[in-house]
Structure formats: C-alpha cells, structure tokens
Amino acid sequence: MSTGSSAINARLGDITQRIVERSRDSRGRYLDRIAKAAEAGPRRARLGCANQAHGFAACGVGDKAMLRSGAGANLAIVTAYNDMLSAHQPYEGYPEMIRRAAREAGGVAQVAGGVPAMCDGVTQGEAGMELSLFSREVIALSTAVALSHQTFDTSVYLGICDKIVPGLVIGALAFGHLPAVFIPAGPMTSGLPNDQKAKIRQLFAEGKVDRAALLEAEAESYHGPGTCTFYGTANTNQMMMEIMGMHLPGASFVNPNTPMRDALTTEAARRAMQITALGNHYTPMGRMLDERAFVNGIVGLHATGGSTNHTLHIVAMAAAAGIKLTWADFSDLADIVPLLCRVYPNGKADVNHFHAAGGMAFIIRELLGDGLLHRDVETVFGHGLDAYTAEPALGADGQVVWRDGPQRSGDETVLRGTAAPFHATGGLKLLDGALGRAVLKTSAVAPERHVIEAPARVFHSQEALQRAFKAGELTGDMVAVVRFQGPKANGMPELHKLMPPLGVLQDRGHRVALVTDGRLSGASGKVPAAIHVTPEATEGGPIAKVRDGDMVRIDAVTGRLDVLVPADEWAAREAATCDLEDSHWGCGRELFAPFRAAVGTADAGATIFG
Predict the structure, then answer these.
(1) Rounded to an integer, what distance in angstroms lies between the CA atom of residue 103 and that of residue 197?
(2) Vertex 357 angle, CA 355 and 360, to 5°
(3) For 223, how many CA atoms within 13 A lie in the half-sphere containing its CB?
(4) Nearest 5 degrees, angle CA 531-CA 442-CA 377?
(5) CA torsion sign, 23 to 24 to 29 to 31?
(6) Which of 41, 160, 366, 568 could crosslink 87 through cysteines, CB 3.0-4.6 Å?
(7) CA dist 377 to 28, 173, 382, 497, Å?
(8) Has 59 been labeled as part of a binding site?
(9) Phi, psi of 343 (to 5 degrees)
(10) Is 161 annotated as a binding residue?
C-alpha cells in the first residue's frame, strides 16, 4: 500500500492523546529543562581557559585551532565498542571515519567517552547475566559522564545490542538539547539457520548429541562480525531506532564492513553536523523524541513481532523524556497493529532475509499507508517519516543516495503488507489476573497454545528446573513457575536455559507453559511464556504463593493470568521466601546492591531512575 496522505488511525490517535494528557506535567518540565540548556548555546567558548585547554590539549593542530576559536561544531562520539560483542567489533574504525566527516563539515569530532557493553549470549545462565539489565543504567550514567564536559554541539552514538541502545538513549535524553544520531553496524551474514541451531540445542538437552556438536552448531550460527541474525533485542533495537527517526533511512540492516555500511556511517556524521544549533536545521533529541515517536516505536515492535524486553526499555526511555507509558498502551496498540513479519523465532528467516524482502522501507510504507504511524514527526533526516520509505544506494561518487523503496514484498513468507498480514493483531499480549501482570510474546507461539491450563511445578532458579528435567522428573502437562527472578531479587536475568527442556517437553506432546518474574527477551520461542510478572516474588507478589500442583491458567486470547485455587484458601496462604545470598555476591554482583534496592517494578521499566 502506498503511503499517500492517509489519515491517522482513530484508535492510534486516541491512545497517543491519552499518553500526551497523562504526561503533560512531566513532559512540560522536561522540555523546560532542555530549553534552558539550549538557551545557553554552546558552552565551550565560555569555559575557563584551563578547562578549555584541557578539552583540546591532545588534538591535532587543525582541530585545536577550530576548538579554540572556530565557529564549527564539536561532535561527541559516545561508543560502546569492544571486541567481545560481534555486533560492536566493527565500531573499532568508526571514530576516524566520523572525524574525517566532521572536518569536512568545518568542525571537529572527539570520542567523548566509552560505555560498557556486555554480551548476553556469553552470560546466559551465568552469574554475569544478573548484571545484564542493570548494565542499561550503568550505560546511561556513563553516557552522562561522557557528555558532562559540556564542550559539544551534537552527538553520535555507536551502540546496537540489548541494554546498550536503551541505556544510550536514556543518557542522551539527559542532554536532550543536543542533536543525536544513532549509528548501527549491521547484522552478520547468515550462518547456520536459527531453527537448526534451536533443534541441536534441544537434542543436546535430551543427551542425543554431545558438547562438541553443540559448540560446532553455535559457532556456525554466530560466526562473524555483526549482530546475531535472529530477531531478538539487538535487532529490535535497530528497527526501533529507525522507525523512531534516530537512524538514517535504511541504515539498520546493512552488513558490516561493506562500502554501503561505511558510506552510511560517514553520512550519519555529516547529518549530525547539519542539525546543530549553529545552523538552520536544529533538531534537539529531547524535542524530537515526543509521544508520537514513542508510539511509532511500539507500533514497530508489534508489527515486526519484536523483543519483549522493550516492554521494559521503551517505558524507561520514554520516562527519561518525561513521557509516561504503561503496559496498557502496549496492549491497546497491539489490538490495532497487524503482524507483518516472520523472522526467527517467529519464523525460519533471519534479519538478512527480512532486509532483502523489503525491510524497514516496506514496513514503514505499509504502516503509514494504513494510518498506523505518525507521519508528521521530526527525524534526524528531516521532517516526516515518508523519507523512511526510501532505501539507500551508492552513487557514482561513492556517497549515499536514496531511491524509492519496494512497493511489494520480495518474499511473502517473511514479510507481508497490511492487506494480508500474518496475524491481524500484534505480537505481544498483556496478561492480568490473580498472579499479577505479565507480558507474553504471542507471535512465536502456535495459536492452539495461546491458552494453557495445567498444574504448576515451582522452581526458584532455572538450574533447578534443568536438574529436574535431566532427572526425568518432568512428565505430563505443566506450567513451570520460576520465581525470585525479578529486578529486586537478582537483577531480572534472562532465562534462556529454560527453553530447550521446555521445548522438548512440548515436542513430546505435553501442554507446557512458563510463568516467571524474570525475562526471556526477543529470543523466546514456541513455548508460551508469561514473563516480567509483577509484583515480583521478592516483593511478596502472588507468584510467591503458588505451590506444586496448583492449576494455573494462561489465556493469551482474553489476556488473563490466573491460579485456580479457592479464594479463601488463596487469601489465607502465605507467600514463600527465598535465600538469595548466592545471587548477591561474586562476579561483581555485590556492587549492584544499591541498584537492587532502588529499582522499580517491571511495568514501570525496571529502572533505578524513578
């Protein structure tokens, strides 16, 4: 469907308006703060002489002269580069490309600071995973430290993966008077298909293949520079940054170390230099990311079947801009947004197949055409989302040019238009009931498993469930209740080690589901999983009352999460407790005690920032 001039969907408009009304006071205070910061203009020239000299002491002659007395802009590079993350390793050479682009624009670029970037793939099932969610807050704080020198006129952010992009956004919004462009590095080329990798994981869980075979499969899947190719949180981040206008059009899913990738990086730096307060196209990030932009991000999440982690991250990011989102907003938007993508774990394709089939340009064109995105928004590329229906190409001089994007999908097994979606509603469902509130990723779950009613098996760690599975103790239908995994308990780790054994049980014909106050992220697969349960068990939430054998009902059709225990018995039952001492020490976890004490609830973003 072409974008044309279709009117905004009425329900989308109503949901957006209620967010505006709910956020009026807090958003107003935020905008006032960044307006005051902008009024002061670039602070570099008003710093004390010693302060200023420190800021350019290590620069070359030309850069030093510009910073000392020139009228050009100073661009801050905040980088999450490290060699540990395949997605971030390509960033090693980006600063020099960005510096060249800044000089050509008459300014200077400096690496303002680095932020930590942990790989959840390395820490899955290990102690480090209990630092993972809190790394988002550390990244936000590190971003603020990087920008606190107040010598910058604009900024670019080098980050891709799970907590890194949300942390960078939260930190950057504290300096929302500065323009900001996010620069991706792209996905690795396709390796072993994700469904084959998942099958080998299940065979290993059953003891049918050895560790050498498992390691070989994993190495064939995760084999080079770039993001992992399944549609988890990292690639959902890239979709979100593009549909919210923080990337250049078409930048999200171009492979690393290619001429197009380098040209897009250079062009992003040029654009960051063009939108400062020193010119005529001033686009401060904090003003740009308004209620409409965040609604567009949630729409993209639903339309693509993206990561459940964003029911935390988008809420926390929006709060940093004074915008109050709720899980009800996610749920109501899911009711009107069709599912247009089948990318693993929602299908067999990977993100390279998605990009080849039409990718972001096609998705945005279709959603605009049905009035399911706010068209009239500011982006780093200019005014309006229509520009994001174009895709980049290399011109004769090696620079980026944009051409019309695809009018139809190149592969309807991967990507469809709004006229014939994979499902009429989005890929996430809000659950509510006697066990609290939770979210469930429906897009990867077969419709006949959207309702599960079975006896509970209660565990206080994923390791305990694995031991029970290996001992042959898990037979028949069941709802695995894995609790004391919330943010206050142990930092709310991802629990992916649960998926192979639960997948095996499901494949054996059992009705199986998961209920947990922990996380599973975008890689959660075919097993129905009610996650992010709040209130969490550590806070005395109802999930702490469940006992082995209680009948639990998960209903993703009506949005219910219930335990079928007589009301008087349930009311009289005491909540279980758990000794979490082993999760509070070692691998640096003792340093995060203040975070566990201060963190809010999952439905408020599981953030320490209030």
Answers:
(1) 46
(2) 45
(3) 14
(4) 95
(5) positive
(6) 160
(7) 18, 17, 9, 41
(8) no
(9) -125, 140
(10) yes
Could you identify the residue written with the tokens 């200019």?
382
Residue 185, token pair as written in the block: 């590095």
Strands (E), 286-377: none
What secondary structure letter does DSSP report for 43?
-
How much is the average pLDDT of 527-532? Answer: 95
Rounded to whole angstroms, the Cα distance separating 161 from 234 reads: 4
Cα separation, 117 vs 398, in Å, equals 32
Q: How many Å apart are CA 158 and CA 164, to the nearest integer? A: 9
CB 81 within 8 A of CB 188: no
Residue 497's φ and ψ, nearest 5 degrees, are: -65, -10
Specify the pLDDT at position 523: 56
Please tell me the total number of residues recorded for the chain in this structure. Answer: 610
CB 176 within 8 A of CB 143: no
Residue-wise DSSP of 536-578:
-GGGT-GGGG--TT-EEEEETTTTEEEE-S-HHHHHHPPPP--
Q: Where along the chain do its domains lie?
A: 10-40+71-189+224-404, 428-604
In which residue are the tokens 């949300």 written? 166
**Amino acid of residue 464:** A
CATH number of 428-604: 3.50.30.80
CB neighbours of residue 582 within 10 Å: 11
Average pLDDT value for residue range 418-423 = 96
Q: Is the separation of the CB atoms in 291 and 19 below 8 Å?
A: yes
Q: How many CB atoms lie under 10 A from the CB of residue 181?
A: 27
| Tokens (6 digits) for 426 | 């989005």
Q: How far, in Å, CA of 275 to CA of 270, rounded?
A: 9
- Cα distances from 48 to residues 51, 59, 65, 112, 144, in angstroms, run 5, 18, 17, 19, 21
Q: What is the pLDDT of residues 95-153, one digit of tens each?
A: 999 999 999 999 999 999 999 999 988 898 899 999 999 999 999 999 999 999 999 99
Taking residues 304-332, what's their average pLDDT? 96
β-pairing, 436-441 with 529-534? antiparallel
